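Work Package 3 (structural annotation) set out to generate three-dimensional models for the target panel prioritized at the project kickoff. During this period the team completed the workflow that converts sequence records into discrete structure tokens, so that structures can be stored uniformly alongside our sequence database. As a representative example, we reproduce one entry of 240 residues exactly as it appears in the project archive.
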Amino acid sequence: MSIWGIIIGGTAGFALGGPIGGLLGAMAGHAVESKFVPAKPDPQATRRVAFTVAVIALSAKMAKADGVVTRDEIAAFRARVHIPPAEVKQVGRFWDLARQTPDGFEDYAKQVSRLFAPRAPVLEQLLDLLFHIAQSDGDITGPELSYLTTVADIFGFDQASFDRLLALHQSNSPSPYEILGVSRDIDDAGLRKHWKHLARTHHPDTLTAEGMPEEFIAAANDRLAKINAAYDTIARQRGL
């Protein structure tokens, strides 16, 4: 069963509880007791479901952070996440439901962050998706920037990491050094070591092993392609 079939049916809600479990239960049309957990929950399945619901909830709430939900923001979400045609309508309903829940976006961010290590690449992937949606209808607005800053802080990212992601999405042509998050005076050995680390930790196989559903592979591949292209550009400039 696809991740969408699982969350639309609300079958994983009892394994999660909290705002994520509550949203799953609301989607399935039943209440979820936040303290009830199955005897043998599957940690990997729980992380996949939590990641997916967090992406929907956080992107839906951020899309209205500046008071306006645009078609561009919804299209940006669908462009980076694989949703089978037969499930688009239901996922759209989930998006609308997430926008209306009384839980604040901080609650969703805190719950999903507890399932992964601080600053985990899979959390950076989630944050990158939020940046992508924020800038899809033009400039990132003040309320959206404040929203993203708060989520990044909850996920454990420092200011330098946040500024790197911001540069990638605010600039029409970020430098390859900005994409890799390194200074221009880094030596060749350090550059190659850093690139290998990024390529390894942001590889789709690594991210799916950590709990990112396969439906998000397109977004991960896009991110990895930018990392590799940035390194290739610098390598050519330096004659490596």
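Residues 30-39 have pLDDT under 50 and may be disordered.
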